[in-house]
Every structure is written in C-alpha cells, then in structure tokens.
Design goal:
By secondary structure, this protein is mostly helical. The protein is built from 27 helices and no strands. The chain is elongated. The N terminus is likely disordered.
Amino acid sequence: MQRLKRKNRLHIMPFFLVFCLLYLISFCLISVSAIAQDEESFISSSEFKQGYDPDSASYSAVAEAVYWEHAASMALSSGDQGKALESYKESLKLINEAIQLDPRSSFLQSKLSELSITTEDYDTAISAANSAVELDPSNADAYYFSGYLKIRKSQDKVGALADFKKAAELDPDHLNANRYLGILAFESGNYKLASSAYARIVKLRPYDPELRYRLALSYSLSGEVSKAIDGYKATIMLNESHIKAHYDLANLYARLGRNREAIDETLIVLTLSRTQNDPNVMLFLAQLYIALGDYDKGIAIGDSVLRRNGTKKAISAEALYLLGISFKEKGEKKFADENLQKSIDIYKNLLEEDATKNVRLNYDIAKVYDAKGEQNFAKKHLEKFIYLKSDDSEVSNAYNYLGYIMVEQNKNLDIAVTYIEKAIAMEPGNGVFRDSLGWAYFKLGKIDEAVVELEKAVELTPNDSDVHEHLGEVYLAKGREYTQKAIAEWAKAIELKPSKTALKQKLDRLNAGQNSGSE
C-alpha cells in the first residue's frame, strides 16, 4: 500500500515535467526579433540615461541626435518605417560627429552601437560596444548591446549570457538585460539565475502576469516550491484564465501531498481548456483521486479515456496503468493484472518501434512493472532511463524511485541510499525524497538518522499520508516517550487517507496496548 501510493505520487511529476519541457522548447525557440518586438521598444530610452555634459564640445551634436531619435520614434509610432529609418540614420551621423569631438566617451560609443543595431550595421555595432566597454567597464548598456549582438550575429549564447549577467549586476533595473538574462538562463537550465532575473523584472513590472508566470516556473524548476506557489497564485490573481499557472500550481500541490487543492486547480484547468476533456489532464486528475483513495473515480476517468476514438497508444497505456492500480487497491487482483499487463504490452511495443526516441517510456513502463510486482524489470528500465537521460530534470525522480524500490525489497540498502542522496542533491527541498532517505535509514537500523530525515519530510510535505505513516513507524521503534508521537503520526496519516485500513488496525492494537498498560 505504501509503495503504491508513493509511485502514484512520484508519477504525478512526469505530466508536469512534460508540460514544462514543451513550454521550455517553445519558449527557447522564440527568435531574437520576436523578443525585441515584445519589448515596448528596442531603443532602451529616448533620453540619454547618463545625461551629457553641456560644456562638452560635442554637446550640440548630441542634442541634435536626440531630436532625430525622437523623430524616429514618432515615425515608428505612426507606422512610417521609411521616415523612421532616415531619422535614425541622421541621428547616427550626428553621433559619429560627436565621437570625433569626444573620442573617449563610453556613452557615445554605446549610443553608436545602439543606433547601428537599429540600422542593422552589426559590424559597427559590435566594434562600438567593445569600445564602450573598454572605455568604461561600468557601462551597463554597453554590456547589454554586446550580449544582444552576440546572439544576433554569432549565436554565442554563452558569451551573451555573461554579458547580460554583467549588465544586470551593474544596473539591476536594466529591463532588457534582465529579460534576456532570464530567457538565456532558463534555456541553459540555470533556473536560479533565471528566477533572480525575472524577480528584478517583476519589481519593475509587477502587473504583468506572463512575467509572474515565468518567475514562478523558474522557482519551481529550481526547487523553490513555496516561492513558486506564491508566484503562480500571483499570476492567477492578475489573470484568472492563465491555464498554465493553474496546471503548474496543481502539480506543485500534488508534490506536497495537497491533493484536494491539486484537484481543485485541475478542475479549473479542465473548465478553462478549449478541449475540456484533455486526456493528459484527465489522467492527472485520475491520479489525484487515486492518491486520495477514491479508486472508483480513478477507474471512471481511465475508462472514459480508453473509450475515446483515436486515443494515442501512450495515453492508453497510462490509462490502463491507472485502472490496474485502482483495481489492485480495491482488492480485485484479476482485473488489476489484466490492465497492468495490457499497459506493459503497449509500452513494450512503443519501445520496440524507436527506443531512442521513446526514452521517456522506460520510466513509464518501470512504474507498471513495479505495480505488477515485477520489481527487477522496473529497476532495469529505471537504470536505462537514468543512463539515457543523465542530464534531464526527470532523473531526480528516477533516482528516488529506483532507490525506494530497493529499500522496499530490503536489498542493497547502501546503494539505495546513494541513489536517493543523488535525488536529494538535485532537489534538496523535495519532501518525498527525504521520506525515502528516512525510510532507508530505518531499514538500515539507523533510527536517529531516520527520525531526522522523516521529520524534515513531514515539514516539507505536511499533507502526505505516507510520510506521517513512516515517521510514526520510526517513532514506535524508538519507543518510550516516542510511542505517543507514533500514535499521533498514524492518526494524522489516516486522517489524510481514510482508506488505510491496515494502518487503522495497527493503530487500534497500539492504542489497546497503551490503554491496558496504563490500567
């Protein structure tokens, strides 16, 4: 029962991760020109931010350049592209005249770079940006233009990321530098850096729901779950119809064992979605009901998905898996085995079609083998998944899953601990992983270490029935004054999941023993 619940809980994440992966792919494919259009204007400001010395020899040329830049902006706003380009060229000519009079000005060099980008003279823009940085290493605009050009001209994303990071350090309120920094950091998997960039942008534009969403997603993928939840809630406050925010919030609630709240958010997603019976969302909802012990609802949803025409094979396999574990929990072994085997057969066929393309299916078939009681096959596919997806964000779940299976088998516990510790290193704030480690310590007889980890797990996932059950078991092993704590933890576990009949019986026997001992 404990293992089954854990697998449901662990497998909730793949829907979320697939969703995030699809979003990440589309997010990263946005062209530089599209990003520039998304900004209020490519030109960072019509005014010269740093000002200019009225006593300088080039002041009059700079002032006239400002006039033509304003004229270009006005032409753009009226849709006159030709007039705008001519005005920019006039401003560019005047900036060059100013540079002749003041060749050591970093400010003028950065303006030359900016205007040259506008007129698509990228060679001049690159040279001017480099000169601006050499003349004044604290010029944030120069680093920003340098980074932009590295993307536009040479697709040097690593160099661009360093430039945008430097620009944001020099000027934390630099909107464009932080925007690009967030995008490139997210694309490279540096979610902490991305979240710091988006946090700065949100301070500048607090009422933009899409920026709030990007910040929340970055927090989520960097393991800062509480901040991510707050971010998704803020997104929804600004845009109640933001489907991705509702769906991601549901997944985070599920990770914390807050399944009822996850169900509420998922139902909102189904209401808002154009296709209100999206099979992926429906199966996610089925998992949530199963996690709460409402197996009949899980079966009903699984059946409805299978009855549809044109259901994809992978979707059918997942639905059959959910039917299998639901029947298993209801004690209907025949139906459970039939559905689980059908699920395995579909997954095997998909893997045979293209094992390289369908790497993800190794994880999926592993959970079905585990539910069917064939743990050795489950371990084999998890190991293959980890090997093929060594740098993937889903690997942490696979390490934890593999380690937990070994713990439940009570075999190679030291190796199991190593796997679970790898998962924790990737997600230190994951309460499920802490629970696995605590349970492994318990099996090793390391009771005190188990208490420490399981108490952390309860703190991180206070609404998870399995975690409370495990902690109660460990408290009971410590005995004496910890026995009452064990009773409290088991009572909480049953409150969270009333279908735990075996645990109810254990608790009744423990209470009876306590009462007889006190008489």
